């Protein structure tokens, strides 16, 4: 499989066409950004780690009945995926309060939430990915009511699977962001990535942060945290 025209370059990945219109190649980069692109940097080895971790997690989710865009790894930093049209939505689940919800609602970081919180954000950098609800999604034609139902059901299932999966590895899944896409034949599948860039992972025993918050907050040992998370996922 050969990379043809570059379709898109995001903050952490590039997407290429292939000679098959139903397949794209994703190349994972070491580039890291935070605070809507205000903080820029690079995390050594991140592309390879996130490519591998996404392969392992998406394969595990497929086995548990979650359809994903993942087809196969092509190299250390590249994977072949089903071509999808991405819904311009960031779908977020929070199990424990951290990050923006603490600032917005005055919750203490680490507060165990009584029930998982489901959020939509509108993927639009110009407006800082604002939080929206179902009514905005439908009114703005970002997805239909039926799409939302499928996405929400899949997201809660994914949360149940991931929470248990990471707990076995000594990790508290605090929150995460996922994205969905639609294939040419209309199937909604999990797309994008699941990695320390897109999840908050806290060690169960020590509460040590093993995710991108180490970069966001200049906590040091950023690379080490990504390496440790891949080690736990592989174990
Ligand atoms: N997240 C992400 N991409 C974004 C915004 C958030 O992957 O553009 C992830 C983030 O890593 C965390 C979860 O979504 O696991 C919730 O993030 P939050 O709303 O707290 O925003 P942040 O504090 O990251 O700005």
From TrEMBL:
Highest taxon in the source lineage: Bacteria
Q: Which GO terms describe its biological process?
A: 'de novo' IMP biosynthetic process; cobalamin biosynthetic process
Give the Enzyme Commission number: 6.3.2.6
Q: In which pathway does it act?
A: Purine metabolism; IMP biosynthesis via de novo pathway; 5-amino-1-(5-phospho-D-ribosyl)imidazole-4-carboxamide from 5-amino-1-(5-phospho-D-ribosyl)imidazole-4-carboxylate: step 1/2
Keyword annotations: ATP-binding, Ligase, Nucleotide-binding, Purine biosynthesis
Q: Where is the SAICAR synthetase/ADE2 N-terminal domain?
A: 6-232
Which reaction(s) are listed as its catalytic activity? 5-amino-1-(5-phospho-D-ribosyl)imidazole-4-carboxylate + L-aspartate + ATP = (2S)-2-[5-amino-1-(5-phospho-beta-D-ribosyl)imidazole-4-carboxamido]succinate + ADP + phosphate + 2 H(+)
Task: Establish whether keyword Nucleotide-binding is in the entry.
Answer: yes
Q: Name one GO molecular function term.
A: phosphoribosylaminoimidazolesuccinocarboxamide synthase activity
Give the main EC class.
ligase
Its family remark reads: Belongs to the SAICAR synthetase family.
Q: What is this protein called?
A: Phosphoribosylaminoimidazole-succinocarboxamide synthase
């Amino acid at each position: 499989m050969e990379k043809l025209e570059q379709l898109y370059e995001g903050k952490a990945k590039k997407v290429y066409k292939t000679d098959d219109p139903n397949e794209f190649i994703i190349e994972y980069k070491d580039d890291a950004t935070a605070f809507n692109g205000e903080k820029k940097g690079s995390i050594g080895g991140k592309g390879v780690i996130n490519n591998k971790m996404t392969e392992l997690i998406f394969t595990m989710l497929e086995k548990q009945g979650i359809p994903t865009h993942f087809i196969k790894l092509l190299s250390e930093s590249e994977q072949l995926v089903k071509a999808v049209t991405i819904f311009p939505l960031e779908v977020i689940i929070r199990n424990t309060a951290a990050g923006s919800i603490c600032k917005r609602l005055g919750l203490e970081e680490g507060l165990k939430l009584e029930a998982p919180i489901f959020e939509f954000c509108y993927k639009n950098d110009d407006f800082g990915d604002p939080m929206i609800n179902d009514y905005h999604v439908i009114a703005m034609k970002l997805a239909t009511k039926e799409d939302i139902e499928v996405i929400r059901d899949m997201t809660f299932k994914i949360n149940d699977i991931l929470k248990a999966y990471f707990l076995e590895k000594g990790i508290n899944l605090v929150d995460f962001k996922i994205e969905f896409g639609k294939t040419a034949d209309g199937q909604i599948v999990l797309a994008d990535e699941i990695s320390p860039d897109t999840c908050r992972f806290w060690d169960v025993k020590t509460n040590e942060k093993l995710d991108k918050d180490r970069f966001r907050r200049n906590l040091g040992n950023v690379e080490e945290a990504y390496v440790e998370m891949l080690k736990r996922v592989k174990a």
